[in-house]
Design goal:
The chain is of the alpha/beta class and 447 residues long. The protein is built from 11 helices and 19 strands. The longest helix is centred in the middle third of the chain and has 34 residues.
Length: 447
């Protein structure tokens, strides 16, 4: 009899298929409950990141906060003591730029929510669109990533990026910081004509000018709106109606929220830095393929770089094969602040530590590679007071591993987010067990 395949449901982008009487069920993904008692991780090697490595150390946390780190610490009488002898304790990893919770299956439009129509959308808040039931979230956190940037894209002003924790019932539960930055996609600056067409070059140049003028107009309008709203209520000044787009740009104009400008080529970087400087905006460069070529400018203007991704091809056919792998090393040597992000468009956010590992393999000191996905990321995202290192008073957002998290053979054995013991099960571990059992039953071996 031919097996009947029936689509049971498609909920929040997660697909569940029934094969006859048996079904492949996704893991429950029940968010972890709040921490109920003090927890002490005892006997492990503690990698504080911001300080020394502590052998046979102890980390104690309560109410979601780290209360002590060291070799001789006071463990509360009611603490749950977890022996992690032979293991390693690290701060959880941070993915600065991702579409986690904003995209599930790229070919299914209903599960894609990281882009809005139109070019000017500063009022878009990415955290409100995050889907807590995304199957990609537990897969990502199983590799030690507990915090990620939910970043919109598309148009000129894409909207507001947020920093989310990868566990929670709702987007409100998951939001750690919002907004983290106002995302701007800088126009491509290349005017190279195809097949020697001067008309095409001219049209391309006009299009670049048009888009930059559109961005200029948006900032001028936002400044005028801010001035009008600030003056409203004064004698002789009429009431000014609110506009959610320009309202969203006020914290940017006041320097409270940085602009995250997506730019890769040298011309893009130079133009965007000049624009941000002229308008007095705090800037973070996202992408930065050519950032080492503009290192002096970036250092002088104190502009940090979120490098994304490392595991990619060179920008130019004549470039060295390892050009992308050496970007962090070259920025570090030049004194430019940076952190490393993975490939947000690939859906493989779990591979973040291996982007940092490749940078380490090509010259970046190993401790700097670790910082690039922990402390440096937290600093650039404006959350270093809470995450990124193991220090008293910071959130108990950390991992326990059996080795170096940048090594592909290392397993993450425990993950805590603000003290909550988060389940590391996910759809991939479920499928691994399923097919392991299949081959056990038939007496075969995986080929």
């Amino acid at each position: 009899m031919k097996m009947k395949t029936t689509l049971i449901c498609c909920l929040s982008g997660a697909l569940f298929w029934s094969f006859g009487a048996s079904a492949v069920q996704a893991h429950d993904q029940i968010p972890a409950p709040p921490q109920k008692q003090p927890i002490a991780l005892v006997g492990g090697t503690v990698h504080t990141v911001s300080g020394d490595v502590i052998t046979s150390g102890t980390v104690v946390f309560d109410n979601g906060k780290i209360s002590s780190v060291g070799t001789s610490v006071n463990i509360p009488d009611d603490a749950l003591v977890v022996d992690v002898t032979g293991k390693h304790i690290y701060p959880a990893l941070i993915e600065p730029v991702s579409r986690l919770g904003l995209a599930e299956i790229n070919s299914v439009r209903a599960t894609v929510d990281y882009i809005e129509t139109g070019d000017i959308n500063p009022n878009v808040r990415s955290e409100t669109a995050v889907n807590p039931d995304s199957e990609r979230i537990p897969v990502t956190r199983s590799n030690g990533i507990a915090v990620a940037g939910a970043v919109p894209s598309g148009g000129l002003i894409s909207g507001q990026a947020a920093l989310i924790m990868l566990d929670g019932w709702t987007w409100e539960d998951m939001t750690l910081k919002a907004p983290a930055g106002m995302v701007i996609g800088w126009p491509g600056m290349s005017v190279t004509a195809a097949y020697g067409s001067s008309k095409e070059s001219e049209d391309r140049r006009k299009e670049i000018d048009r888009r930059i003028d559109e961005l200029e107009t948006a900032i001028r309008d936002a400044k005028a709106y801010h001035a009008a709203k600030s003056a409203a209520g004064k004698k002789g000044v009429p009431f000014h109606k609110s506009d959610v787009r320009w309202e969203a740009l006020i914290p940017v104009l006041e320097g409270k929220v940085p602009v995250w400008i997506e730019a890769n080529s040298l011309r893009q970087i130079e133009a965007s830095v000049e624009w941000a400087d002229r308008h007095g905006l705090k800037m973070v460069l996202v992408g930065g393929a050519d950032a080492p070529r503009a290192a002096d400018l970036l250092r002088r203007k104190n502009i940090p770089v979120i490098i994304t991704p490392i595991l990619r091809l060179p920008e130019r056919r004549y470039s060295d094969y390892d050009e992308p792998f050496t970007v962090p090393k070259r920025l570090s040597d030049a004194g430019v602040r940076f952190c490393i992000a993975g490939d947000s468009g690939s859906g493989n956010e779990r591979n973040l530590p291996y982007h940092a590992a490749m940078a380490a393999a090509y010259g970046l000191p190993k401790d700097e590679a670790l910082k690039s996905v922990t402390l440096y990321a937290a600093e650039i995202l404006g959350a270093a007071g809470r995450i990124g290192s193991l220090e008293k008073g910071k959130d108990a957002t950390l991992i326990v591993t059996d080795g170096d998290p940048l090594e592909i053979m290392t397993n993450v054995e425990k993950l805590y987010i603000q003290g909550r013991d988060v389940d590391l099960e996910n759809r991939q571990t479920m499928l691994y067990r399923k097919y392991t059992e299949k081959y056990r039953r038939i007496g075969g071996t995986r080929q």
